[in-house]
Specification:
Layout lengths: L1 H29 L3 E6 L4 E4 L1 H7 L3 H4 L15 H10 L4 E9 L5 E12 L5 E10 L1 H36 L5 H21 L2 H4 L7 H9 L11 E5 L6 H20 L9 E9 L2 E9 L13 H11 L5 E6 L4 E8 H4 L2
Parallel strand pairs: 6-7
Antiparallel strand pairs: 1-2, 1-5, 3-4, 4-5, 7-8, 8-10, 9-10
Helix pairs in contact: 5-6, 8-9
């Protein structure tokens, strides 16, 4: 009777162990994270469904192969260091790295590695958990770009204020006249800035390309009678998907003209030609008014990088800038259908 009881206890314990192992296997297989194991030589010994989704390999394609198949050429030195730490019994907490998918594309991941120990307490391999952090990386990059743009535009606001005071002071006969002129300029600037927010607020957009150019450049002119900005050529409707980006670009060009270019001198002029070249709209922004040394800067500024990213990205066009003897020339080319979207 005593022997029978002991036998039942042994079987019960074994069943609990098997159930625990089955539960663990189910958790690993259903995990969204990539979970795999390898031996101390770096050979893959297990591969869950999450690993198949992340890396693109089915289990039979990688089991028995070295884990280095997932590591880009410039990061091959990571694996020997990982294995050395695992042999010492160390756990490697989450660190960010890059791995290669079956199709050759690279993916940003957060990786943790833990030793696998057998029943005798001997280290026999390692388990890896990899999580795709591509979306988080993109969000961080977008945040950094927005912070740079905010810093750039705040600095531009101070430069604009200084430039507008200089413009207004040239013709002001009294303090009252100066204040009135500045109020008019800043009011125009506010109205132009509102164009960049109209889409988000659901308001009506400016109807045509010419109207948008004149509205954005209005705050930078001495008065309404002076032809400081001349627009010629094609005039087409601008759709709500384009007006925000285009208004920001025009404000960037006008700000630079006021700080360094044609609008910073008494008789400077900006000539803007709008042309149609097949299915492409070309806008040429040409400044006239010599300002001394206007040689090409050694490095492209943030404003130019932002303009290039906007034109070549969301608007699907091209951006080029050339420094002439008496001013800068900017050429934008955009698909016509994108202008009206």
């Amino acid at each position: 009777m005593t022997g029978a009881v002991n036998m039942l206890v042994d079987i019960s314990g074994r069943q609990e162990t098997e159930l625990a192992a089955e539960r663990l296997a189910a958790i690993v297989e259903s995990s969204d994270d990539a979970i795999l194991s390898k031996d101390l030589n770096g050979i893959i010994t297990s591969w869950n469904a999450g690993a198949e989704r992340l890396f693109g390999y089915a289990g039979h394609e990688v089991l028995g192969k070295p884990v280095t198949v997932l590591i880009p050429e410039d990061r091959q030195d990571e694996e020997p260091r990982i294995l050395a730490r695992i042999r010492r019994g160390e756990r490697i907490d989450h660190y960010e790295t890059i791995r290669r998918r079956k199709d050759g594309s690279l993916v940003d991941i957060s990786l943790s590695v833990s030793p696998i120990v057998d029943s005798a307490g001997k280290i026999v391999g390692a388990s890896k958990i990899a999580r795709d952090i591509t979306d988080r990386r993109r969000a961080e990059e977008q945040k950094d770009l927005l912070l740079q743009e905010m810093d750039h535009r705040v600095k531009n606001l101070f430069a604009l204020a200084n430039g507008m005071v200089a413009l207004s002071s040239r013709k002001a006969a009294s303090v009252d006249a100066l204040v009135s002129d500045l109020q008019g300029r800043f009011g125009s600037l506010s109205r132009a800035h509102s164009l960049t927010m109209s889409r988000a607020r659901g308001r009506e957009q400016v109807a045509t390309l010419h109207a948008l150019i004149y509205k954005v450049t209005e705050p930078y002119l001495n008065d309404q009678t002076e032809s400081r900005v001349v627009v010629t050529g094609l005039d087409i409707p601008i759709g709500p998907a384009t007006v925000t980006n285009f208004a920001l670009l025009l404000q960037e060009f006008a700000t630079n003209a006021l700080k360094y270019g044609a609008l910073a001198v008494a008789h400077g002029q900006v000539q803007i030609k709008c042309l149609e070249e097949g299915d492409t709209v070309c806008m040429i922004w040409r400044e006239h008014g010599k300002l001394g040394d206007r040689s090409k800067p050694l490095e492209e500024g943030f404003g130019s990088r932002l303009a290039r990213a906007t034109i070549e990205g969301p608007l699907g066009g091209s951006f080029a800038r050339e420094f002439k003897s008496d001013g800068v020339e900017i050429r934008l080319r955009l698909p016509r259908h994108r202008m009206s979207e």
